[in-house]
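Morning. Coffee machine broken again, so started the prediction first thing and wrote up yesterday's gels while waiting. Chain of 185 residues, entered below exactly as on the submission form.
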Amino acid sequence: MTSNSPKSDFDGVTLWFTGLPCSGKTTISQLVFERLQRSRLKVELLDGDLVRQKLTKGLGFSKEDRDENIRRIGYVCHLLSRNGVIAIGAAISPYRAIRDELRRMIPCFVEIYVHCPLEVCTQRDVKGMYKRALAGELKNFTGVSDPYEEPLHPEIVLQTNEETPEQSAGNVLEYLRGRGWEVTT
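Came back before lunch.
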């Protein structure tokens, strides 16, 4: 049994979506969440933007604050998954070391790299964040003035510039089916 396979019907898993801003993390994780709910599985979604409004309010965007933000989201995912829930974390999580820390903490951790070229993310940006970051108005912006460290060995890589959100969500669900989760949709 691998660390990313269920041990029993009661074990959960953490699906960790990581990628540049505007790569598709929120859209795809929401689709996966909805399909897992329709399969009558216990599932929770922790979206990075929403979590920052409640759980990690007050944290900034320094490396230390970003790490703390991800640790908190990861800890909640850990608690959920150890209690039989499919926990979905969708956060930029730009630093490899903190994602590796989560992998060591969470027994059943599936890293999902939402890959999308920077140029495409910039085109998708309806909030104008990239434009502001490129103009120097936003400091510590991932992919522009702060690094994004790509995963070295993610379980799943989604090419969101080449596939629809529905196809990407389907790839995640297929991965889960192949590892013993009963996903019906």
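The CA atoms of residues 7 and 134 lie 46 Å apart. Going to sketch it on the whiteboard this afternoon.
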